[in-house]
Amino acid sequence: MRKQRILIGKAREECFDSINSDPPKYTSGLWCNRTWDGIACWTDTHASSTATQICPSYIIGFNKFEYASRRCTETGEWFRSPKTNKSWTDYSRCITPVDTVLAQNHIHNILGLTNFGYVVSLISLLVAIVIMVFCRRFHYKSNVLHINLFLAFSCRSLFSVLRQNLFTYGFAMSIDFQKKGDKVIFKDGPHWECRLLFTLFVYGLCASQVWILVEGFYLQMLIHKTLFTQQRSVKFYIIFGWCFPFTFLIPWIFARIYYDNTLCWSVNTHWSYLWIIRGPITLTIIINFLFFLDNIRVLRERTRARGNSRTFRKLAKFTVMLVPLFGVPNLLFMMLPPELNVAVDVPFLYVSMLYSSFQGLILSLLFCFLHEQVNI
């Protein structure tokens, strides 16, 4: 405790030195004055905005990978707690439960494996695209869709790798932070570079999920041999696969700009806006799972009609191929609870992140490199 008081006292002295010596940050309009809140130092902040900074590293037990926030109201005064009527700083993210601290010991390993998985997936997908474009025996309708599926997962892998390696603390790029002693403060400004990168990352995630839906829908139509499949050209599927994600990506961008314009949009202060993205993705996963069950039912009935072991083995191989195509594991990973129980959820987190990062490799193996072995 004595060491903690010394560290806080040192930070307090540095804060008041900065308050007294630094020139005013703004010269017009309303803003909240710089202040010391008893734990951290806060700079001048525009009215109707939220100041954020990385949780102070000198506070024992604080999570340095999270951030604290302090709201400046529209009147140019710091937000006051209704209970105490005193200015209030939100340190809730900095205070981490013991189980979560233990779980965070695994985060470094998980991020390293995930980064490696996305790099391997990106390389394998690009090689598969080259093979399928230049090899004539791959030039038919379903493989055109496979190529677009590979492109979508290539975008997802590329932007995931860029985000993981360019974002500091997982929140923003290094150019978006300003370091003052032990403090890391998020600079004022549009921060369009990091927000553009994160938006591209979200688009890659959405496009990959929509293209899984496109593949699932196309296979559903093929198995049932509908007139729709025969009449629609591949252009219809391509336009839908690349354009449909914008129907919920654009509303999410507007929601972030006007209602939750925090950091580089990689963290959420209003979780309800996250469902603008999560809702449609969840719906595509559920629809694909229903397609998967129906296709297995139809193929099983046809196998019974033929009644031979060779056909059954082909069905088993085809079922294995359908699992990643329809994103079946994603339905299980959706059940990962927000509150971690180390004994159960950390292994679950390993599996889900590894599957997500290596999914591109799995798809390229099944639909390109092992193509002849899985035909039915």
TrEMBL record:
GO cellular component terms given for this protein: plasma membrane
InterPro entries: GPCR_2, GPCR_2-like_7TM, GPCR_2_calcitonin_rcpt_fam, GPCR_2_extracell_dom_sf, GPCR_2_extracellular_dom, GPCR_2_secretin-like, GPCR_2_secretin-like_CS
Gene Ontology MF annotations: calcitonin receptor activity; peptide hormone binding
Keyword Acyltransferase in annotation: no
Pfam families the UniProt entry points to: 7tm_2, HRM
Membrane topology of the entry: Multi-pass membrane protein
Keywords of the record: Cell membrane, Disulfide bond, G-protein coupled receptor, Glycoprotein, Membrane, Receptor, Signal, Transducer, Transmembrane, Transmembrane helix
Positions of the G-protein coupled receptors family 2 profile domain: 14-98, 110-371
Key word Magnesium present: no
Residue spans crossing the bilayer: 116-135, 196-214, 234-255, 275-294, 315-336, 348-370
Location(s) in or outside the cell: Cell membrane
SMART domains in the record: HormR
Protein name per its UniProtKB record: G-protein coupled receptors family 2 profile 2 domain-containing protein
Species, as recorded: Octopus bimaculoides
